[in-house]
Amino acid sequence: MIKVNHESKAWKIARVAISVVLVIMCAMTIVAAASGATYDVTIIDSERSVTISTRAETLTAVFKEAGIVTDNNDIIVTDKFVPGQPSTIRINRGYNVSVSYHGETFKTIGYGDVANVIKQENLEVSETDNVNFPLATKLSDGMKIIIENPITVEIRIDDEVITGDTYSSSVEQILKKFNITPGENDMVVPDYDTIIKENSVIEVKRVTYKERTAKETLEFETIYEDNANMYKGTTHTKVSGVNGKKEVLYRDIYVDGVKTDSEVISETVIEKAVDEVVVRGTKMPESGRFAVDVPIGDSDSVKTISNFTLPSQYKIDENLVPVSYKQKFVGPGTAYHTGYITSTGKAPQPGYIAVDPDVIPYGSKLWIVSNDGRYVYGYAIAADTGGFTWNGSGTLADLYMNTYNECVQFGRRNITIYVLD
Fold first, then answer.
1. pLDDT band at 7 (very low <50, low <70, confident <90, very high)
2. What's the rounded Cα separation, in Å, for the pair 182 and 179?
3. Is the pTM of this model over 0.70?
4. pLDDT tens-digit profile of 129-174?
5. pLDDT higher than threshold 70 for residue 351
6. What is the pLDDT of residue 21?
């Protein structure tokens, strides 16, 4: 009995030991299961492929571990991704591209290469169409894909006309395509960098140069000296100008054999010119006692014998000459004073003058100065007939003065009459 009891106690100890081992093994199994096993994930990103070993259970975690960033344009294919099992993930990158198709332009998100964009947009590309990239070209952000019909260009050169088909490109590229190399000085119309987009004409104009010499006059310059003792409007030539001579080297420009321009290369003086020196008066003219101020030039004025104010539409320059006039008469002038009504029925006053109406019609608006610069009669109107019309004295006009004394002082002197209107 005692032996039996002893064996029973040993068995009990063995059973306890076995139980402890089993518990430890279960615990290890649970820990292993809880921590998860690694598995391989292959990520195909466009042309790049990478494989990582991971315990990640989500797509986001896988990408984070692989250092891969995507955006909203990208397409992620996950049909072969199962967490915990060997998997494959494919990323199709999306690119913002513009497409010009037969003249119409639009923007799209493209994937892969140029051929794929054409396919995804259902574009029909014929054998004669031109695509500006090879179809297998991989896409990139901002890419501009151009699909165009051929255009016909006409190239005119050396009296020849060359016609052919090409595609939208610069004039320079088109000329190269047709093996045309303009000379360094030749003109190309339109310019080399002009983009031809439709049927057009390109002209190559041959430009040549020829040099020549010519003997020409070297004109003298006029130098003015002011003299306060001479009346304004009068001049005196102190030194007469003499032209010189010079030899000029020209370069003549010919376009397609026709002379179009010349440019001066150099000038050589053969004989120097002598400048002309002209003395001009600055003294203001004498005036009558009923004078009015008339503006001259930009900031000066002069007193006139005439009582009439110069209308604003007429301008007198600093030399007492109208800026514009219809006609000019030069000849002897005299002065008169009378109480009789004029031939046109007007009461006489300074400003109404006597004329030959066959030469200067009644009503003509005039500007009158003496040629010696001493008198500015001013703005006048032809209103009377002068006695000189019949006496053959050759007088040009009789100017009305306020007094007989003024008439005597004026005497007979050459005058200039400008017909304003």
1. very low
2. 10
3. no
4. 889 999 999 999 999 999 988 889 999 999 999 998 888 888 999 9
5. yes
6. 35
> With contact defined as beta carbons under 8 Å apart, do 49 and 42 qualify?
yes
Please report which residue ranges of 297-392 form alpha helices under DSSP H. Answer: 388-391
Q: Is 20 helix (H, G, I), strand (E, B) or coil?
A: helix
Rounded Cα distance, 10 and 233, in Å: 155
Question: For residue 306, which phi and psi values (nearest 5 degrees)?
Answer: -60, 145
Backbone angles phi, psi at 116, to 5 degrees: -70, -35
Using alpha carbons, list the distances in angstroms from residue 42 to 36, 83, 85, 329, 343.
Answer: 19, 12, 11, 109, 121
Instruction: Give the mean pLDDT of 174-194.
Output: 93
| Both tokens assigned to 65 | 């571990």
Question: 219: which residues sit within 8 A by CB, 6+ positions away?
Answer: 243, 273
C-beta neighbour count of 229 within 10 angstroms: 8
Rounded to 5 degrees, what are φ and ψ at 96? -80, 115
CA dist 67 and 81 (Å) reads 18
Tokens representing 249 are 């080297």
Percent of the chain at pLDDT exceeding 90: 63
Q: Record the tokens describing residue 177, joined without a space.
A: 């395509």
Amino acid symbol at 262: S
| Residue carrying structure tokens 């003058």 | 353
Domains in the chain (CATH in brackets) are 41-92 (no CATH), 94-148 (3.10.20.90), 151-205 (3.10.20.90), 212-282 (2.20.230.10), 285-419 (2.40.40.10)
Query: How buried is residue 337: exposed, middle or buried, by Cβ count under 10 Å (0-12/13-18/19+)?
Result: middle
